[in-house]
Design a protein that fits this description.
mainly alpha, 3-stranded mixed sheet, 10 helices
Length: 312
């Protein structure tokens, strides 16, 4: 028996997908299938590499390990269903399936925003307070911080899910998106948005604003510290340590803010879809590439792992 929303006549939704142009469906299917394969292989490889190499068992790589896990998970929540829209006449998802996808998407994406801020703080301690790094970022500190990251993700996902539960979906079940997301579902509802839209703006504002403020403060202090380093080599090493993280943060928070922190009336869905592509598909694919190609420790670990396999 299909689950139906309370006070609603909708048992399922139709995801419109990325585009209605038929000639683009197959090329886009293979393009995003390729993206997803790179995401899966890249993130699982980074997870495996960190797990197998003891010299990477440090706080920085502990958080990078979890970042790769989160990227793999929320890309898997979104991409397979999106791929179906390119090869099926109607990409149907049940009400329960839609709410489940929304919950796990929000859980992982909010967790990512906070773990990126934790990684910025880790860089701050590494560069600005290296003598107390071991004590400041000990396992007894890192594990509760990580637990807090996932608790924040769970709490935010539950808050949005509760708000979604008060909406009534009438005859309109066509979601103008490639996934079940908050704003596209608001467009389908025949309930007033006087509660939901302010909640979305405030909660997402906190989820983007607090991590962004933490990151900006951390990097302002890092920059100040780097500029006081007399040697060119020391400055170069400091900038190199932070550059990968800055690129990832800019892509992730920039696209997320563009999607959610504008009133829906000012944001047509096509630009929103493009913005969503960045933080749901492109960023999880680029993260392992950025962190591995610009990281000497990861390169060394990869060479050692490959040499061991070749020897065996």
């Amino acid at each position: 028996m299909r689950t139906v929303a309370e006070n609603s006549s909708v048992a399922e939704f139709i995801l419109e997908g990325l585009t209605n142009q038929q000639e683009l469906q197959i090329p886009l299917f293979f393009l995003f299938l390729g993206f997803y394969m790179v995401t899966v292989v890249g993130n699982l490889s980074l997870i495996t590499l960190i797990g197998l190499n003891s010299h990477l068992h440090t706080p920085m790589y502990f958080f990078l390990y979890n970042l790769s896990f989160i990227d793999f998970c929320y890309s898997t929540v979104i991409t397979p269903k999106m791929l179906m829209s390119f090869v099926s006449t109607k990409n149907i998802i049940s009400y329960a399936g839609c709410m489940t996808q929304l919950f796990f998407f929000l859980f992982f994406v909010v967790s990512e925003s906070f773990i990126l801020s934790v990684m910025a703080y880790d860089h701050y301690v590494t560069i600005c307070n290296p003598l107390v790094y071991t004590a400041t970022m000990s396992p007894q500190v890192c594990l509760p911080i990580l637990l807090g990251v996932y608790v924040m993700g769970f709490a935010r996902a539950m808050a949005h899910r509760a708000c979604m539960g008060r909406l009534t979906f009438c005859a309109n079940n066509l979601v103008d998106h490639f996934m079940c997301d908050i704003l596209p579902l608001h467009e389908c509802s025949c309930t007033s948005m006087y509660v939901n839209e302010p909640v979305v703006f405030v909660v997402v504002g906190i989820d983007i604003g607090v991590p962004t403020a933490t990151i900006f403060i951390s990097y302002a202090l890092i920059l100040s510290s780097i500029l006081h380093i007399s040697s060119t080599e020391g400055r170069s090493k400091g900038f190199s340590t932070c550059s990968s993280h800055i690129i990832v943060v800019s892509l992730f928070f920039g696209s997320g803010a563009f999607m959610y922190l504008k009133p829906s009336s000012l944001l047509p869905m096509n630009p929103a879809k493009v913005s969503s592509l960045f933080y749901t598909i492109v960023v999880p694919m680029l993260n392992p590439l950025i962190y591995s190609l610009r990281n000497k420790d990861v390169k060394i670990a990869l060479k050692k792992t490959l040499s061991k396999k070749s020897f065996c």
